[in-house]
Structures are given as C-alpha cells and as structure tokens.
Amino acid sequence: MNPDTKHREEQKPVMIRVAEVQVHGPTFATLFFDAPMDFSPGQFVMVWIPGVDEKPYTISYHSPDRFGITVEAKGLFSKKAVSLSPGDLVGFRGPFGKGFEIISSPDVAVVAGGCGMAPLACLVEQLDPKVCLIHGARSKEFILYPDRFELDRRICTDDGSLGHKGFVTDLLEEEIHTRTQSGQKPLDMVYACGPEIMMHRVFEICEDHGLPCQVSLERYMRCGFGVCGACVCGGQVVCSDGPVFGSEILRTLEDFNRTALLKSGKPVRLEEYATWRCS
Ligand SMILES: Cc1cc2nc3c(=O)[nH]c(=O)nc-3n(C[C@H](O)[C@H](O)[C@H](O)COP(=O)(O)OP(=O)(O)OC[C@H]3O[C@@H](n4cnc5c(N)ncnc54)[C@H](O)[C@@H]3O)c2cc1C
Ligand code: FES
C-alpha cells in the first residue's frame, strides 16, 4: 500500500458500540465490544470518545468476535470512558505498535503493577499455564481480575490487605533466589508492566541476574503510528518501535525511568509526568 494511503487509513476511526460494561473495584471498568480485533498482546488502540478526546489503551480481553479495554478512571477522558453505557459509540484506530515476543516455556515470570495487569492479561492467557504470575496493587480492592486466571497468582499489596505486604520486585527476587537455591532452571523471560519506576527495578534485577526482560512503556501519544513525535523516548518512538521493549534496547534508553514529554513537547522528570493531568 502507498504509505500516504496507509496513513490515511490509520487516521480513520472505526466506530463500534459498547456491548457491555464490567466495573472492577473503585476505579476500573472494562468496556466490551462485539467485533473482531486482530491484535497481539502488548499492542494498543487509539480510543476516541466523540466530543471528548482520543487516548491510547491496550486490549485487555480478546476472543475471535469480542474484545475489551480496561480503563482506570483518572482524568476527564478516562472518567467519561468508565461512565459509558451499552449502545454508546466509541471510535478505534489500530491496533498499533509492537507487542510482546511470546516465549513458550513454563520458566517465565510475569510481573504486573496495578493497572499494568491490563496489557499483560491477554499475554498470560497465551503463555504456559505454569508461569509465575506476580501482581501488586495499593490494596486488595485494586487487584484487577481477581478470578480470571487458572494459574496461581502471587499477590502483594502496599498496605498488606492481601498477600505479601511489599513490592512485586520482592516476590520476583524471591522467585529468582528459590530457583537458584533449588538448582531449578533460570527464568527464560521476565515480562513486566506497571509504574515505570517498578519496571526499571525489574529491569535492574534481571540485569543483575543475567535474565532477559520485556517491559511495556507509556508515553504521551497523539497519532499512534510514528508520525507526530509526541511519544519519543531516548531515540525510540514508543508507539511504533514499542510500546514493548526488550533488555537490549532498554540498556540504551537513557530516558527510561528519567524523562518524558508532556503534551506540549516539554521534557520533564518522570515524577512530574506521572502526576501531570492533561485534561
Ligand atoms: C500504549 C499505552 C497503553 C495504555 N493502556 C492503558 C490501559 O489499558 N488502561 C488504562 O487505564 N490506561 C492505559 N494507558 C494510559 C491512558 O492512555 C491514560 O491513563 C489516559 O489517557 C488518561 O487520560 P485522562 O484524560 O483520563 O487523564 P489525564 O488527566 O489527561 O492524564 C492522566 C495521565 O494519563 C497519561 N496520559 C494522558 N493522555 C495521554 C495520552 N494521550 N497518551 C498517553 N498517556 C496519556 C499521562 O501520564 C497523564 O499523567 C495507556 C497508555 C499508553 C501510552
Ligand atoms: S504518538 Fe505520534 S509518533 Fe508516537
């Protein structure tokens, strides 16, 4: 296809009606759509609510004729998204970006922090059922999809209301240590998604132990397909080179856990980006 024609296609949203809304806990809701979506875990779509805005979301549920996005209510757009009802029209562009490289091995760890479980959920469903799934959240009501997976999930919470009181990285280090002590095979891959400070710590732990990892980064996105430059991070265009990046790229990514661009294009420290509200 001529690249100009391709870009025009990528810019046109496909309108689909909300089929069902499931509320999870105090701040999350999943919107389901009865339509096929050809995607691989870790890719994202640009979601348009007419009259409001357009924002990136990963697919959190997927079957041949239904998909879902899970939204954490934060600002104007996401609060509007979680209040949508069956029959409301939503526009979709994509899917865009490079998703996770899937490793078929039971010796894999998946590490999710808070809403980071959303992009990892469809990945978990494609991995070996014996993988080690570690999931952390502020407290037990923020653990997404508590009954969704067949496999054992190791839970931790900041306040100790469920599972280990502490961080997902404590449980990852414990898994690595147990494997070393018992002479088990080292992990073939560690997948992570969550706050960037957490993913950076997962990356450091993996580097210390010579393990490969893949993490899914978030940056401000506008076009979603590599044209506007809004999502650039240390020389990588997150929407088209990522959002999933492996250890090799992460080693060279000087903005990882350091800086991000605001909507205006201004670079700021990641702590400022994380608390910024653009709507
Ligand atoms: C690839 C990707 C996948 C994502 N998947 C999910 C998901 O599955 N579930 C989920 O709840 N959230 C996801 N997000 C984050 C989601 O896009 C933002 O939370 C949402 O845009 C917030 O909009 P708002 O108006 O409600 O909040 P605002 O008050 O506008 O912003 C709150 C925060 O959201 C982020 N944000 C705002 N606008 C954008 C934008 N255009 N692009 C990227 N980040 C933005 C910023 O970090 C900002 O600090 C994803 C982001 C990216 C980049
Ligand atoms: S969002 Fe436009 S280049 Fe990435």
Order of helices and strands: HEEEEEEEHEEHEEEHEHEEEHEHEEH
- The amount of beta strand, in percent, is 25-35%
Distance between the termini: 36 Å
| Residue share in helix | 10-25%
- Strand order of the main beta sheet, please? 12-11-10-9-13-14-17
Number of strands: 19
CATH topology of the largest domain: Rossmann fold
The helix count comes to 8
Computed structural class: alpha/beta
Low-confidence stretches: none
Number of structural domains: 3
Give average pLDDT, whole number. Answer: 93
CATH class of the largest domain, named Alpha Beta
Which ligands accompany this protein? flavin-adenine dinucleotide, FE2/S2 (inorganic) cluster
The CATH level-2 architecture of the largest domain is identified as 3-Layer(aba) Sandwich
Note the overall shape.
globular
Can you tell me about this structure?
It is built from eight helices and 19 strands. With 279 residues, the chain is α/β, with parallel strands linked by helices. The protein folds into three domains: 15-96, Beta Barrel (Elongation Factor Tu (Ef-tu), domain 3); 98-213, Nucleotide-binding domain of ferredoxin-NADP reductase (FNR) module (Rossmann fold); 217-279, no CATH class. The chain has a seven-stranded mixed sheet with strand order 12-11-10-9-13-14-17, with helices on both faces. Strands 1-8-4-5 form a four-stranded antiparallel sheet. Helix 4 runs parallel beside helix 5 (196-208). The longest helix is centred in the middle third of the chain and has 14 residues, at 168-181. Bound molecules: flavin-adenine dinucleotide and FE2/S2 (inorganic) cluster. FE2/S2 (inorganic) cluster binds at residues 221-224, 226-231, 237, 239.
